[in-house]
Write a structure and sequence with these properties.
The chain is α+β, with helices and mostly antiparallel strands. It contains 18 helices and 18 strands. The longest helix has 36 residues. Keywords: Coiled coil.
Length: 557
């Protein structure tokens, strides 16, 4: 996986991972699904080789798919390893959650067993977490439910960065194995359902047996299933739902028959549902539970048709993807927030600032609060057709001209900075650059654990001291940045004083009280400036203030 200290790389990898997980459910057969699982490891998880070992009915595991090396694929695809040998491997080495890592120092005893494998010789690792050609990493795939039935094992090799995966990489591989198990189960389910439907159409003599097979597959499917009416006045009404779907939505089957999916979908997702075609349509959206909450699901449609009368009803497979969505949000949060303080990190700060800026500078005279509201809602204008005291490029408070990075009707409220340090009534986006005074001496004297505790407490005090909607971010080290919108020059100065006074009181760590001071520089975000220019301006003002207070005794410790 990518270097874990670079959150923007994690975000790129997260997008790749999201895409390959999405691709798992687009395969049309079990064989396609298995190959998609192997290809996804290469495309989204950063390994050069991947193998999918599938459990056969007799319990042994067969190499069902391979990706990354044509020669190795030809060598081992279709070969079988005994269940006993696999169970031995899955109990050796180190357990990383559900993953199993066997270092080359232990794996040499496996070279002669019957599990199909590829390996090459290589030198000893040069550093602790360097990957060795004979290291082995396995990701078991278990069926959903409490039984933990083994469906297969994903084997991976040769990470592109040459290192053993860290915590984030392990979690991503484990999540991918879980989603792969669901996709394989669903592929098997869809195959069984299709066979049942074919029997319903073509084998009239075996109709009762086919109906029972369909009922069993429908009722006892691990994920939700529904049959809806097609055509007529009741188009879309649910005719039948299985227990899994009823449990998922917290509604009994009798109540479910009163609804269609259009009645249950989240208002923001109704357009997506209507755009989903009947045959082969697929969508990820939210359905309402009985308690008023919503759950993320993946819908997949199939039309059950009569050869003479045409479409008869719609079969919908409903998969619960709430856990996947939650993991995606957690991974995105980790990539955009500081792991120590929980504050937005440098990348997230720059993204938020960039969203407020454009490349077209604009400056006008001061505006009152009433005039600013008038401007935002298309109110009073001066004789030039401009809103007094509000930074806009068109009447009504918004810019409707094309700007770099925007469309022809990009609704962008321009940022304007107050003139000088005197409060002229102009309200803008204040950027307060905070640098702690005396923090280094605390780190040197009491250690990094005490320093970390101080940073956490300072982050808490800064967050408590600002309004809801303001941003407090950790730029790095002992530097913080506060974004506060709608402030004048005097307001920003008052805020800096309040935050400084909030930081100064002693901080108790492990029974001792330590003190830090803070220097604040106030800059302003203004359209026409880049993000780096805004931060540099606030940083320079902070150093000016620090030098002006150089003769004031600041004590830490």
């Amino acid at each position: 996986m990518e270097t874990e200290s670079e959150p923007y790389v994690r975000l790129a990898t997260l997008r790749q991972l999201h895409q390959v997980v999405t691709d798992l459910n687009t395969a049309r057969s079990l064989a396609d699904t298995l190959q998609t699982v192997a290809d996804g490891v290469i495309a989204g998880l950063g390994y050069e080789l991947a193998c999918v070992n599938l459990v056969r009915p007799d319990g042994d595991l067969v190499v069902a798919a391979f990706a990354g090396n044509a020669a190795a694929e030809a060598l081992i695809t279709g070969r079988v390893g005994s269940r006993a040998s696999w169970e031995r491997r899955l109990t050796m080495g180190e357990g990383w959650g559900d993953l199993r890592f066997i270092p080359h120092t232990e794996g040499w005893v496996l070279l002669e067993d019957d599990v199909p494998q590829w390996y090459t010789e290589g030198p000893e690792p040069r550093f602790e977490d360097e990957w060795h050609p004979q290291d082995r990493l396995y990701a078991p795939m278990y069926a959903s439910g409490g039984g933990r039935e083994l469906l297969g094992v994903i084997s991976v090799d040769k990470p592109r960065n040459g290192r053993r995966p860290g915590a984030w990489g392990r979690e991503a591989l484990q999540m991918y194995a879980s989603q792969s198990a669901i996709a394989i189960s669903n592929a098997r389910l869809r195959a069984n359902m299709q066979r049942a439907l074919v029997r319903l159409e073509r084998e009239q003599q075996a109709l009762r047996a086919s109906e029972e097979s369909f009922r069993q597959a429908f009722e006892y499917a691990p994920s939700g299933m529904a049959i809806a009416e097609m055509g007529g006045d009741q188009h879309g009404r649910l005719l039948r739902t299985n227990d899994a779907l009823c449990r998922l939505l917290g509604r009994p089957a009798a109540v479910m028959r009163r609804y269609s999916f259009a009645d249950l979908v989240h208002p923001e997702d109704i357009g997506l549902l209507l755009r989903t075609s009947a045959e082969g349509g697929r969508a990820e959206l939210r359905l309402g539970r009985r308690d008023g909450s919503y759950v993320w699901v993946s819908l997949r449609n199939s039309v059950v048709a009569d050869t003479a009368d045409g479409p008869r009803f719609l079969l919908t497979h409903v998969e619960d993807i709430e856990e996947r969505k939650r993991h995606e949000l957690q991974l995105a949060h980790r990539a955009s927030h500081d792991s120590l303080t929980g504050l937005p990190n440098s990348a997230e700060l720059r993204a938020r600032l960039s969203a407020r800026l454009c490349q077209r500078p604009y400056a006008v005279g001061p505006a009152s609060a009433v005039e600013a509201l008038d401007a935002a809602y298309g109110g009073a204008h001066d004789g030039r057709g401009e809103t007094p005291g509000h930074a806009v490029c068109a009447p009504g408070g918004f810019d409707f001209d094309p700007v770099p990075g925007g469309g022809p009707f990009d609704h962008h409220v321009h940022m304007v900075a107050p003139e000088g340090d005197v409060d002229d009534g102009t309200k803008g986006l204040a950027v307060l650059f905070c640098d702690l005074d005396g923090f280094k001496s605390i780190n040197d004297r009491f250690g990094h654990n005490t320093g970390d505790a101080v940073l956490i407490e300072v982050a808490r005090r800064l967050t408590t001291g600002v309004r809801d909607g303001d941003t407090v971010a950790r730029l790095g080290g002992d530097e913080f940045v506060v974004l506060a919108d709608g402030l004048g020059a005097a307001d920003a100065a008052d805020l800096a004083v309040r935050l400084r006074n909030a930081i100064i009181p002693p901080i108790r760590v492990d029974g001792r009280a330590v003190r830090v001071g803070a220097s604040f520089g106030i800059g302003w975000a203004s359209c026409g400036m880049s993000v780096e220019e805004v931060l540099r301006s606030a940083d320079q003002r902070m150093y000016i203030e620090k030098r002006s207070r150089a003769k004031v005794h600041r004590r830490a410790g």
